[in-house]
């Protein structure tokens, strides 16, 4: 795995990495708390050799004392020294146990022996170190050869052990650092395994790196998408602006084609391809183009629910000859978007899409409209999507963020490549990355209009003002209505905005957005005959 990919995985799984590190530090702290406190006290003993009248003899004595210091340091942990220590201090331990508590060291090129003792009691640790130093000094002369009846080697305590004030064990910084490193290693192992086994597409850089395709648009994740799927019909919607940016990018594709076709598909279900196709079609229709949205997903049709259209006859019925193509197309929305739903669910969708009737119907639609948007089935689960993509090309691959696995994306690309299908680009859908949405632009909120109570409470010195309320009535007018006889010549009573009260109860936009009516246009046969003439 490359370093860049590993860093991306760590960035996407930062919560797991932080959790593992915190757990490692917590485990180190628990070890610190559970480990008994131990104290270490040290005493220093100096080894001297007597004799030597000349400088050479003194040098030899110094070298001899350094050599003997190492030998005597080993004697300090033997029974000949430890047994008297246990007896003098009345310790309830064995020689083997006391040997594990006592350690010695000799600094380089010195004749000093450092005796260290470790115990749970600081006073007892100092007593053990001092006792070992004392008995070692008494034992060593009896173990060395005598000269003129005396031993030339003497041990002298130059620094006694004192009770330590701070424990030597556990080592708190070391244990915490060890726990941190252990948590970091565990997090790295988890991230690498997750990246190998269950890697998901999470940002647009990853899309470009894996597919090599241009990212035509980035659609942000919105929890309200289920309730309001057609974002281009909602003013001030960020997703609506993103679909309009996608529409602008689509205009640069297929520059030599007068009638363009875009096959919207995905690698698997659940990536939002149908909602993307519907929003692209609505955005293109809003720009004044003649657009037809075709639902070629005959297994799981969803456009009827997204557009709130009745699912009666459709593409399947046209292919089986039960209905004419003109009668199956319906209009939707204020921009006269033409929609051809899937229709009845057939038992053999792949065979229908591969039939000559399907190819002829799609070609007629292509010649009829400026842009044809086809909602294709996903590529991996069924072969239907690859069939439609092979017929018309212009594939736009919708990639769902944190939904699609990397291996699924590669499998879909391999299948499209094997069919020789050209993929125009990718749409990164349901993006949660803040880096993909650095600039948001929405209209400001409208000024709040005063209510009737606010106008009634206004000072009487203020001139009367007329403010139109949301209900269409005139509020804030203090003067009573005048009779028709009181009007000046040529003056008329001002009309009340909003029409009659009966008009106030109706919503003029109710049938504007989701209206379905049969498309009224000349039959295809008449159009083809005009082209021939």
Count all strands and give the number.
Answer: 15
Largest sheet: 9 strands, mixed
Structural class: alpha/beta
Radius of gyration: 45 Å
User: What is the first-to-last residue Cα distance?
Assistant: 64 Å
Report the total helices. 21
- Overall outline: rod-shaped
- Uncertain runs: 460-533
| Fraction in beta strands | 15-25%
Average predicted confidence as pLDDT:
80
Strand order of the largest sheet: 5-12-11-6-10-7-9-8-15
Helix content: 40-55%
Briefly characterize the structure.
This protein has 533 residues and is an alpha/beta fold. It has helices at residues 3-12, 14-34, 55-75, 79-89, 95-101, 122-143, 172-197, 204-211, 238-250, 273-286, 303-307, 315-319, 325-328, 349-353, 356-368, 384-392, 406-418, 452-456, 501-504, 510-513, 524-532, and strands spanning 39-49, 102-105, 112-119, 153-159, 215-220, 260-266, 291-295, 330-332, 337-340, 371-375, 395-400, 423-431, 467-468, 474-475, 516-518. Helix 9 crosses helix 10.
Fold topology:
Layout: H1 3-12, H2 14-34, E1 39-49, H3 55-75, H4 79-89, H5 95-101, E2 102-105, E3 112-119, H6 122-143, E4 153-159, H7 172-197, H8 204-211, E5 215-220, H9 238-250, E6 260-266, H10 273-286, E7 291-295, H11 303-307, H12 315-319, H13 325-328, E8 330-332, E9 337-340, H14 349-353, H15 356-368, E10 371-375, H16 384-392, E11 395-400, H17 406-418, E12 423-431, H18 452-456, E13 467-468, E14 474-475, H19 501-504, H20 510-513, E15 516-518, H21 524-532
Parallel strand pairs: 5-12, 6-10, 6-11, 7-9, 7-10, 11-12
Antiparallel strand pairs: 1-3, 1-4, 2-3, 8-9, 8-15, 13-14
Helix pairs in contact: 2-7, 4-6, 9-10
């Amino acid at each position: 795995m490359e370093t860049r990919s590993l860093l991306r995985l760590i960035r996407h799984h930062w919560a797991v990495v932080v959790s593992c590190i915190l757990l490692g530090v917590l485990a180190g702290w628990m070890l610190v708390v559970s480990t008994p406190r131990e104290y270490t006290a040290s005493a220093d003993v100096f080894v001297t050799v007597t004799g030597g009248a000349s400088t050479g003899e003194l040098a030899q004595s110094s070298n001899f004392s350094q050599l003997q210091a190492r030998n005597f340091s080993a004697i300090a942990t033997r029974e000949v020294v430890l047994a008297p220590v246990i007896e003098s201090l009345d310790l309830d331990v064995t020689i083997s146990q006391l040997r594990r508590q006592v350690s010695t060291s000799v600094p380089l090129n010195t004749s000093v022996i450092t005796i260290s003792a470790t115990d749970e009691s600081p006073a007892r640790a100092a007593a053990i170190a001092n006792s070992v130093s004392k008995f070692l000094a008494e034992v060593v002369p009896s173990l060395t050869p005598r000269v003129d009846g005396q031993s030339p080697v003497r041990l002298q305590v130059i620094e006694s052990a004192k009770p330590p004030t701070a424990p030597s064990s556990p080592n708190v910084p070391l244990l915490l650092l060890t726990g941190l490193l252990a948590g970091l290693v565990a997090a790295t192992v988890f991230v690498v395994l997750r990246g190998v086994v269950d890697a998901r597409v999470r940002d647009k850089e990853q899309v470009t790196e894996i597919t090599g395709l241009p990212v035509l648009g980035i659609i942000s994740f919105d929890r309200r998408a289920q309730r309001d799927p057609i974002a281009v019909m909602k003013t001030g919607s960020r997703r609506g602006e993103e679909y309009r940016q996608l529409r602008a990018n689509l205009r640069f594709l297929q520059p030599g084609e007068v009638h363009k076709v875009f096959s919207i598909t995905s690698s698997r279900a659940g990536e939002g391809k149908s909602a993307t196709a519907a929003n692209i079609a609505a955005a293109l229709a809003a720009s004044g183009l003649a657009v037809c949205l075709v639902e070629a997903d005959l297994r799981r049709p969803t456009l009827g629910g997204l557009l709130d259209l009745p699912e009666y006859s459709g593409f399947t019925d046209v292919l089986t000859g039960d209905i004419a193509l003109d009668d199956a197309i319906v209009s939707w929305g204020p921009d006269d978007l033409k929609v051809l739903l899937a229709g009845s669910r057939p038992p053999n969708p792949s065979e229908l899409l591969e039939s000559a009737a399907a190819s002829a119907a799609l070609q007629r639609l292509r010649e009829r409209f400026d842009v044809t948007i086809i909602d294709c089935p996903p590529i991996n689960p069924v072969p239907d999507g690859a069939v439609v993509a092979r017929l018309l090309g212009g594939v736009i691959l919708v990639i769902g963020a944190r939904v699609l696995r990397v291996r699924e994306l590669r499998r879909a690309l391999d299948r499209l490549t094997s069919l020789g299908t050209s993929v125009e680009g990718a749409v990164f859908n349901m993006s949660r990355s803040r880096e993909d949405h650095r600039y948001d632009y929405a209209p400001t909120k409208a000024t709040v209009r005063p209510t009737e109570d606010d106008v009634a409470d206004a000072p009487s010195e203020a001139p009367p003002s007329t403010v139109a309320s949301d209900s269409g009535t005139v509020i804030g007018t203090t003067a009573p209505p005048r009779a028709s006889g009181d009007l000046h010549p040529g003056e008329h009573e001002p009309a009340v905005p909003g029409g009659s009260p009966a008009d106030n109860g109706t919503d003029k936009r109710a049938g504007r957005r989701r209206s379905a009516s049969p498309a009224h246009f000349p039959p295809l046969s008449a159009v083809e005959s005009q082209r021939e003439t």
